[in-house]
Design a protein that fits this description.
8-stranded mixed sheet; 30 helices; single chain; globular; alpha/beta
Length: 771
């Protein structure tokens, strides 16, 4: 049902059209996404206004009161259809595309003033560019972020913005995918014509401009149409072509996630190279459609976009005050993790936040670090002076657990020892007064149920894992670990709190390593075994060969497996292996009770820690050497000592001294990781493949352009290839259980389904059965 337009009184001669009026009441649209309903409404409203002789000008606003968002852009869900994302290709039934609307607005015989507030992004900004005038208030944040979902602006953004503000500015906004351009910036670059005065609303401002514009001669309106303008020369004297060349140099290589960024440059270049605006629009359309329909990288980016939003949106809303940013927070442990967790809560406005550590010197160092970090954030503009002052005032510290008595939420972040953690939770049981206080552990591998069992039965429903990733105030991911007694309300409250501290919550089941670290085990284990199996001698595989294959220059992970181990500390893996009972006892020489006779294992990583003290970057030696004078002590340098150790452990390998192709290394170390992901899905530890993808994207440096391990296996590799290779490797190495193919993987291949489609189908079937 198309609603009638809202107009001002007839004497004013101005029609005010609100984008929000185009959304049916039954379909929530808080960001004014330009869905089919909205586009059809806007087209009808604008055409009606143009036909009405009493209307002399039009104001386009996000909401009737001029508050909130203008529009966050296109409805991205439509990009999965066959309609050109409803941006470039007309739909059946007369529903206009964004391009249709932009052309209608630009060709309007009456001046259109876009009144911009809040978010004005993507297609929303492209509609604003099509208006003859643009005004805003100080809440405006505009930009064209399409590159971040593997596309380019498709409704004239790459053609109109260069004509309005120049190529330099268009490259900055579009190639970088900016979303934070302010009204002050808009006035400086020429995007905006005016900003509302302190004593007027943006609608009042737009009405003032509309009344003035309505009196101008038609020739003035013609000059305001950007399609009639040519791209200006650069104010600093650089050639537009040269600026595009420099922009390409800053883009990632095409194969390494740079398809959409490079495509934006190609389309912007057309704005000044081709002979007309119409030809430039045709270039933009072709580039947009090519990315939409043919780019696997683009599909990966959009998969992440939707996966992130589905994973962080709960089925119900928590009524706990914590979910509204209110409550007293306790953080136990002033080490690296505890400090980062405390910073996250302080920056979100929680308080007081009590940092606790029994070691007074460690506590003092932790408090000092937190204060310094907050001050640095304030200096860089990431924290306002008032918020800095409030955060500093909310930070408290103590060496006595009783200081946590009034807490609403406590996060324990001490070292990974089950006995220590159980002892802490047993004490919290009697210390914390609120019976419904959330008692959470930041454990990365330990059994949450074993920790919870040290609480009284009535408290266990309020206990869960809240696994942050280091550094906790920077990394966006939190694994919310569901124990057998954890209530649904507790999970929803933790999910809400996690979002308030600006992180992404993924609810996972309770098992050794949960999702992320459990999948890391076969990855790191096989990396080491592949190295030892093919290393040694002058021609053999080296540590850097493995890291190079997996790292940013080839596969695309942020760091290779051995670099990651050095950064994290090689003693962490050593201690985990000791806890699992698979290490050889250094005193007796006896092999750990849990290392079975047929198990594939190498002791190279144990010896480098135990006998050589090569713990990683923190001691300037690990798998690599590190020099404080080179790369701030972070640049990995080859180690003769480690090469000699590798020679020792590879001497009996039949494949000693042979190189492997990079693709073979990738398959050997990443297919077991993917296989473990399938097993995790089988067991219900993760509820959807996309959750695993988000965990690896934000927690482990998986390249976004590959979409996550499950997306990669599904779409880039193909599950039959994964299955065949795992079967081959399991036959060759029966002592590595992680090569045994998952039954879910076998089932997907048998049915000819990708794992994501398998789960979608299962959910559809479950819904039908409930109905």
């Amino acid at each position: 049902q198309i609603q009638t337009i809202t107009t001002m009184s007839i004497p004013s001669g101005v029609a005010v059209i609100a984008i929000s009026n185009g959304s049916p009441p039954s379909i929530p649209n808080p960001v004014n996404a330009l869905s089919a309903h909205v586009r059809q409404y806007l087209q009808t409203a604008i055409v009606n206004a143009l036909k009405d002789p009493s209307i002399l000008a039009i104001v386009l606003v996000g909401r009737p009161d001029g508050k909130g968002v203008f529009s966050a852009g296109a409805d991205i869900k439509e990009f999965s259809g066959n309609s050109g994302g409803s941006v470039t290709t007309s739909e059946p039934g007369g529903i206009p595309t964004l391009n249709d609307l932009a052309h209608l607005m630009e060709g309007s015989s009456k001046p259109i003033i876009a009144a911009l507030t809040g978010a004005c992004l993507g297609g929303g900004m492209e509609l604003a560019l099509a208006a003859q005038y643009r005004v805003a208030d100080k809440s405006l944040k505009y930009g064209l972020p399409e590159v971040k979902i593997g596309l380019i602006p498709g409704a004239g953004g790459t053609q109109r913005l260069p004509r309005l503000c120049g190529v330099r500015y268009a490259l900055d906004v579009i190639v970088r995918g900016r979303i934070n351009c302010s009204s002050a910036e808009g006035m400086k670059c020429g995007f905006l014509d005016g900003v509302a005065k302190n004593d007027e609303t943006v609608v009042d401002c737009a009405m003032r401009w509309a009344s003035w514009a309505a009196k101008l001669p038609p020739i003035t309106l013609e000059s305001r149409r950007l399609c009639n303008r040519s791209v200006p020369n650069d104010a600093e004297g650089m050639q537009n072509e040269d600026m595009c060349g420099f922009a390409l140099q800053s883009c990632p290589p095409k194969r390494a996630g740079g398809e959409s960024a490079r495509a934006t440059v190609e389309s912007i270049r057309a704005s000044f190279e081709v002979s007309s605006f119409t030809e430039g629009m045709e270039v933009e359309k072709n580039v947009f459609n090519d990315l939409l329909y043919h780019s696997l990288q683009g599909r990966a980016y959009r998969h992440i976009f939707f996966a992130e939003r589905s994973s962080s949106s709960g089925k119900r809303k928590s009524t706990n005050p914590l979910a509204k940013g209110k409550g007293t927070i306790g953080v136990i442990g002033a080490g690296t993790m505890g400090r980062g967790i405390a910073i996250s809560f302080l920056k979100a406005g929680y308080g007081p936040v009590i940092l606790l550590d029994v070691n007074a010197k460690g506590l003092e160092a932790g408090v000092k670090y937190i204060q310094q970090t907050l001050q640095i954030d304030a200096k860089k503009g990431r924290l306002s002076p008032s918020k800095l002052k409030a955060a500093m005032a909310c930070l408290k510290s103590s060496t006595d657990l009783s200081a946590l008595a009034s807490c609403d939420l406590v996060v324990e972040a001490v070292f990974e020892n089950l006995g220590v953690k159980r002892d802490i939770f047993s004490k919290l049981d009697s210390i914390v007064k609120k019976e419904d206080a959330l008692l959470l552990s930041n454990t990365s591998t330990l059994d949450v149920d074993a920790i919870s069992s040290s609480l009284s039965p009535q408290r266990r429903q309020f206990c869960a894992g809240m696994h942050f990733f280091s550094p906790a105030h920077i990394m966006k991911l939190v694994e919310v670990v569901r124990g057998k007694d954890t209530s649904a309300d507790t999970l929803e409250t933790i999910r809400a709190v996690t979002k308030l501290i600006r992180k992404i919550p993924i609810v996972v089941g309770n098992c050794d390593g949960f999702v992320g670290n459990r999948m890391m085990h076969p990855y790191t284990t096989e990396s080491t075994l592949t190295l030892v199996g093919h290393g040694g001698g002058e021609a053999g595989l080296t540590i850097s060969d493995v890291d190079s294959a997996i790292g940013p220059k080839y596969f695309g992970m942020a760091l290779g497996p051995f670099q990651v181990s050095d950064v994290a500390g090689n003693d962490i893996g050593y201690n985990i292996r000791r806890e699992k009972g698979i290490l050889r006892d250094p005193k007796t020489g006896q092999v750990g009770k849990n290392r079975s006779p047929g198990m594939r294992y190498t002791e190279i990583a144990d010896e480098m820690v135990e006998k050589m003290g090569r713990l990683g970057q923190k001691v300037q030696k690990g798998w690599y050497n590190y020099d404080p004078k080179i790369g701030k002590g972070r640049k990995p340098l080859p180690s003769t000592e480690m090469q000699q150790l590798l020679d020792k452990y590879s001497k009996d390998s039949p494949s000693r001294g042979t190189k492997l192709e990079k693709d073979e290394i990738v398959q050997r170390v990443l297919f077991p990781l993917v296989n473990e992901g399938f097993k995790i899905l089988e067991e219900g530890i993760a509820s959807d493949p996309s959750d695993i993808d988000i965990i690896y994207l934000y927690g482990y440096g998986w390249p976004a352009y590959r979409g996550g391990p499950m997306f990669w296996a599904d779409n880039e590799v193909g599950l039959p290839i994964v299955l065949d290779k795992l079967e081959e490797l399991h036959t060759k190495h029966p002592g590595s259980e992680y090569f045994r193919p998952s039954e879910l993987l076998r089932d997907c291949v048998k049915r000819g389904l990708g794992v994501q489609e398998y789960f979608r189908q299962s959910k559809r079937d479950a819904t039908k059965s409930r109905l």
